[in-house]
Amino acid sequence: MNHGTHENNQCRSNKHIMRKLTIALLFAAAAGSLTVCAQNAPKTTEPTAVEEPFTLDPTPIDRSDSHQFTSYAPMLAKVTPSIATVSTSSVVRIMRSRGGDPMEEFLRRFYGITPEDNSDDKQSDSSGSGTRKVPNGMGSGVIVSADGYIITNNHVVCDSSGEAADEINVALLDGREFKAKLVGRDPQTDVAVLKIDASGLPVVPFGESDDLQVGDLVFAVGNPMGLSQSVTMGIVSAVGRSRLGILGERGYEDFIQTDAPINPGNSGGALVDAKGRLVGINTAILSRSGGSIGIGFAIPSSMVRSVAVNLMDGGKVERGYLGVTIRNLDATLAESFGIQGGKGSLIEGVAPGSPAEKAGLKRGDVIVKVDGRNVVSDGDLRMHVAQKKPGTKISMTYIRDGKSRETEITLASLSPDMLAGPGGILVPGVTVQPVTEELAKKFGLENPAGVVVTNVAADSPFSSSLVTGMQILEINDEPISDVAQARELIKDGAVNRLWVIYKGNSGYLGIRVPKE
């Protein structure tokens, strides 16, 4: 996990080694729902809860200027002092016993730490047991306010389990080092905000990432492979990249793709335009080997600003909730619903009591515009809604029976349970849904009964036993008919017996659920 990129398993045989492109986070794995919600939408006209400390330069790039630059050194000299090195560590408990300590062996083998090392970081009690700080890795961060707010990736400040690291340190270009406070983090966008006790810091101004075009010049600034203040140059290769699976099924992906070389350690660093303005936070690469092959991804600065303000305001992100299950239109469906151009988002379900139901939306409606913006795919709608705060009113244009209609909807608050879409949380961190035709096809399920696991959070205590695609037919010998019944059958404070099917194999599985 540390200093590197996660890769999918490569398929090997005795005669061939077939290399597959894998999506990889540069530092560690972080954590879309069909329930509509998310980022990257036109700015809301409603005031934010806190005054933004960020500097914004909205001046558009003059793409007609044919002047040829021989060096970008003056611009980059202003940017690089605002890029910090972020390193983290976690505290592990060491239990000493006769015959050797397995944890000491683990530390020695994987971290090169011997019992005599880190004497300043090790504390023991009378039994000889104690704790030791274990490094998680290193990434980058961007100073966005003179009084010490720093934006980085969520996966930079987490340990291997997805939990926040016990200690976060920040090193600046001028040699100063600080212990940082984690203000807040949002795994669904992979954004985190840190705060250090300092003032008068150099700041990178924000640019308008929504104005980026393919071919615009960009620079990636960060600490790849531990080489601080490294700068690479490239262009914007694409915008609006989504459905890559980098942030999981519940993540909000709307990445900028760039060929500016990005490597492990660049996570959380800046992607700046030719005027030195922050247009993205570097977060992932597409790679065979874990190193850059010229396909990197950055979170747009428009999304970063929205999330960061929320985190600074209350330590968490509040997202709007519409309450519909949607899908993309293909050419055949578009024709059947009479949608010219084949663009829009088809509603396949409306949650009871949701804002969508109250506004009169029904299954079979096709949403074609939201707040005057064309909806090309379900991702557009989902990202737009989740950027809005609960209580925000949005306008919507939809097609029903071939006729265009309009409505205004007041968004509700998106709770964790709503992220389960038509399903729900079975046990902490595990989402299940009824077995639909679509899910059966996706996971290769032959039996339509029971429920299927559709998401397992990285920090779930059941992540080692329940996996995505696992079908649960019985709980404690009772057949399952729906999600609500499945939850009722789970006994807290006891070992529960599940009859499951996974990849064609069936059998019993025992899970211990602690008392709430």
Structure summarized in a few sentences:
The protein has 516 residues and is mainly beta.
Describe this entry's structure for a reader.
- The protein is mostly beta strands.
- The protein folds into 4 domains: 11-47 and 73-80 and 202-314, Thrombin, subunit H (Beta Barrel); 82-195, Thrombin, subunit H; 320-416, Roll (Pdz3 Domain), CATH 2.30.42; 423-513, Pdz3 Domain (Roll).
- The chain has helices at residues 73-79, 102-111, 301-314, 331-336, 355-358, 378-387, 437-443, 483-489, and strands at 11-12, 17-18, 22-25, 83-94, 123-124, 130-143, 149-153, 167-171, 177-179, 181-186, 191-195, 217-222, 230-241, 255-258, 270-273, 278-287, 296-300, 320-321, 324-328, 345-350, 366-370, 373-374, 393-400, 403-410, 412-413, 424-427, 430-434, 451-456, 471-475, 478-479, 494-502, 505-513.
- Strands 4, 5, 6, 7, 8, 9, 10 and 11 form an 8-stranded antiparallel β-sheet that branches. Strands 26, 27, 28, 29, 30, 31 and 32 form a 7-stranded antiparallel β-sheet that branches. A 6-stranded antiparallel β-barrel has the order 12-13-14-17-16-15.
- A hairpin with a 4-residue loop joins strand 15 and strand 16.
- Residues 1-45, 95-99, 115-122 and 124-129 have low confidence and may be disordered.
